């Protein structure tokens, strides 16, 4: 294994080039068939283009919620330049290649060059990312904004703190989960303040940049929508998905059916604000009536998020939003391959199961490396500012999932940010070179 890793790290430039070429081939050879949220985002952007408006458009005030306003507007710009799904895939590829560079720079900052190279390899061999490239989800832009914000924060210059906070604001405008990084910054500031017995004035730049971004983006949205909105308003509906009589820990749309807690009889008569209040009241009422059950649901939400890992791989294999967990469940309980994977021949079924099995094996091994690395870092007291920040972001992100609802896609930013931690353990295990971690 050591020889294989050494060979791969020495040929990293060629591997990255091959990775880029293969993705370009996929972009121009596969016609995406968006489904679920990916299709919803795409349709929102197309409606805005047709009416020559930015998102959210005034007529979208009766939508169930405002979702990923920055991402949808970026999509609008891309489709206005070239109205094809290819434009989205090419943009995603650019995000992925920049992400490779940022992961390398972050890992180099907190560990070593050897660990940084392994981080790149782990990212490349995590094929779900390629599946996301061919789709239209928020994950790739979101994690790039988060990771770049962390990188500029670690530079610890006044200008870089301002850039870090602006990027954090952009991430919040894509997904509210970015608040987890702000919480991480706050806790890290408290930790540093406790150790030094003083508060660093440099944090003024961090919070100022975030405040300015939120104001600018919010007022821009208000100028064409009539409401000051700077992020998604999906919090109430996600809270309800994790707090109702039919709750499973993961996404379960039955809560919106007639007679259920989330059912709205005349949705077109209510604004997204009123719907949000309705969902939130229903969720809080259920939590108040079932507090113990709601708390005990947390492990189920965790399992739904981290238990399996078919984020984008089924899409990459041409099977749309096939759920690997359901496929395995049907095969085991009913022994029915055709029902588990309908509309596909036997060869396709076997290829799908083999690739998903191998990818899950890779995923579980990385999770084990992450856990062992965290244990080792704490045991040897090798934690530095970068590792603490990544772990705090992961902790608060998971906490937000446990409060709302679990789904495999939600772990993608967490998993990507933890790859340098896994790479540290792999490098330590095989000793590819001299590595040291300087406490900051």
Specify the helix fraction band: 55-70%
Shape descriptor: globular
Percentage beta strand: under 5%
Indicate the mean pLDDT: 91
Instruction: Give the N-to-C terminal Cα separation.
Output: 32 Å
Number of helices: 21
Low-confidence residue ranges: 434-440
Overall domain count: 1
Query: How do the helices and strands follow one another from N- to C-terminus?
Result: HHHHHHHHHHHHHHHHHHHHH
Q: Can you summarize the main beta sheet? A: none
Pairing-aware structural class of the strands and helices? mainly alpha
C-alpha Rg (nearest Å): 22 Å
The count of β-strands is 0
Task: Explain what you see.
With 440 residues, this protein is mainly alpha-helical. It has one domain (3-430). The protein contains 21 helices and no strands. The chain has helices at residues 2-10, 12-29, 36-50, 69-81, 85-110, 113-124, 128-133, 139-155, 158-174, 179-196, 203-225, 235-241, 272-289, 291-296, 298-306, 313-316, 324-334, 337-340, 346-379, 385-403, 412-430. The longest helix is centred in the last third of the chain and has 34 residues, at 346-379. The radius of gyration is 22 Å and the shape is globular. It starts with a helix and ends in a 10-residue tail after the last helix. Residues 434-440 have low confidence and may be disordered.
């Amino acid at each position: 294994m050591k020889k294989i890793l050494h060979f791969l790290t020495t040929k990293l430039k060629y591997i990255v080039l091959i990775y880029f070429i293969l993705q370009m081939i996929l972009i121009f050879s596969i016609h995406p068939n968006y489904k679920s949220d990916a299709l919803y985002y795409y349709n929102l952007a197309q409606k805005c283009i047709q009416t020559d408006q930015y998102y959210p458009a005034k007529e979208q005030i009766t939508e169930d919620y405002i979702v990923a306003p920055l991402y949808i507007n970026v999509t609008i710009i891309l489709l206005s330049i070239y109205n094809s799904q290819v434009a989205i895939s090419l943009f995603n590829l650019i995000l992925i290649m920049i992400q490779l560079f940022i992961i390398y720079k972050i890992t180099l900052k907190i560990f070593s060059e050897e660990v940084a190279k392994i981080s790149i390899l782990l990212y490349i061999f995590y094929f779900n990312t390629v599946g996301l490239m061919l789709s239209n989800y928020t994950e790739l832009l979101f994690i790039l904004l988060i990771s770049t914000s962390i990188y500029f924060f670690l530079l610890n210059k006044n200008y870089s703190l301002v850039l870090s906070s602006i990027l954090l604001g952009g991430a919040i405008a894509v997904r509210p989960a970015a608040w987890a990084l702000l919480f991480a910054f706050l806790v890290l500031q408290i930790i540093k303040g406790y150790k030094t017995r003083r508060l660093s004035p440099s944090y003024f730049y961090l919070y100022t940049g975030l405040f300015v971004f939120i104001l600018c983006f919010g007022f821009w949205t208000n100028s064409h929508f009539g409401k000051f909105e700077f992020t998604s308003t999906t919090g109430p509906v996600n809270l309800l998905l994790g707090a109702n009589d039919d709750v499973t820990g993961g996404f379960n749309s039955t809560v919106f059916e007639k007679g259920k807690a989330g059912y709205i009889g005349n949705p077109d008569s209510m604004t997204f604000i009123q719907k949000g209040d309705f969902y939130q009241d229903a969720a809080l009422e259920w939590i108040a009536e079932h507090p113990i059950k709601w708390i005990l649901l947390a492990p189920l939400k965790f399992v739904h998020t981290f238990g399996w890992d078919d984020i984008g791989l089924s899409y990459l294999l041409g099977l749309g939003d096939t759920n690997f967990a359901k496929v395995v469940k049907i095969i085991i309980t009913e022994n029915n391959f055709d029902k588990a994977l309908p509309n596909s021949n036997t060869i396709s079924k076997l290829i799908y199961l083999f690739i998903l099995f191998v990818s899950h094996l890779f995923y579980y091994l990385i999770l084990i490396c992450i856990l062992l690395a965290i244990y080792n870092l704490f045991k040897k007291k090798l934690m530095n500012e970068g590792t603490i920040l990544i772990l705090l972001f992961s902790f608060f992100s998971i906490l937000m999932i446990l409060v709302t609802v679990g789904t495999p896609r939600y772990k993608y930013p967490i998993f990507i940010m933890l790859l340098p931690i896994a790479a540290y353990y792999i490098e330590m295990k095989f000793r590819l070179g001299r590595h040291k971690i300087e406490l900051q």
